[in-house]
Amino acid sequence: MQFSELPLQKSILKAVAEARFQRPTLVQQKTIPLVLEQKNVIVAAQTGTGKTAAFALPIINLLLDKQDAEKGAKTIKIVVVTPTRELALQILDNFKSYSKYTNLRTTAVFGGVALEPQKEILAKGVDILVATPGRLIDLQIQGNIDLSHLEIFVLDEADLMLDMGFINDIKKIEKLTPRKKQTLLFSATIPDKIDELAKSVIKNAVKVEINPEETTAKNIGQLLYYLPKKHKTDLCLHLLRNTIHGKIIIFRRTKFGVDKLEQTLLKNGYQVTSIHGDKTQGVRNKAIEDFKSKKATLLIATDVAARGIDITNVDAIINFDIPNVPETYVHRIGRTGRAGKSGIAFSFCSPDENDYIKTIETLIEKPIKVIDNHPYPIHKPKHKKKQPNTISKHKKGRKSEASKKKKKRWY
Predict the structure, then answer these.
(1) Whole-model pTM?
(2) Same domain flag for 194 and 319
(3) Beta bridge partners of 78
């Protein structure tokens, strides 16, 4: 399918063509027609599958259909709630790119920056508002945001909002919106609490589910290294010197792990930066910009800090720690091999992580190729052969009789 086959206005198709998108992804093919039909939709699909365009393109189209009939000051008709500043900025860029040949006005509000500039933009009137939950509530309390004219309410990365403790804020925001509206919820996974949230805020929703095995791109090579945990840093350095080149994202499970690996790689002369939840917003933004501009070729990150950040032309992913949630593995490796390009994912598995690999392979419905030819392999002990029983049948029989005599009846 081509984008031109979708019922989108010419101004939108022109912007999409200039962005060099020709074929809609699977989630876009399934979601865009439903949004255009003004249905409530719940979408479960990994980050990197094109979810932002799946709601941005039809939303812009719906606004353009009504725009000519409406006059007067602009009111907020669309709200997209997303958990982090990085995601808000990314979604804002997408909306601006796709609506460049319209007069729709989009802005984003988020914490960590001054309120006044955001208030000034809102005062001029906007059609589409992208917001993080806390800042949206703050501005609404201060009287700078009016959601009474809202037509479409979008919850993006809902499972991450759950992880970050925003669910109660989402419920507060939803109560500020009109009852009659279109609601769209997007999430990488649908755990029980997200399912409960969806049922409470979305009525008669159509579900779109893109299976993880469908999103594990065929052009991403997947390699698995079994090794002792103490040698993971050594293997990482070995592969960086001899095998892995280009722009690389390394995932670690903890903030401490990120900092420790960053210091080691810096000492070894690598251009490296990092992001995790304890770093300030300014430091995180600079880290992303340095990586995008290739001032740093290595980015070390925790999953929550890196969630949803759109970085193009990533050559390889290193799973330094194996994630204990299998969907997270799919999300991680999806950072490479985008837009038809090839990529490769290297995973380091220590004995305590073997069960995680089993659940990942069950999810993606295929085994990950194991590389044994490396300096730190685990040599699994061979099963010892059972020794033949040397007790003669005669002695065995005597032993059996003797043991019977020793047994006493308890009654």
Answers:
(1) 0.69
(2) no
(3) 128, 152
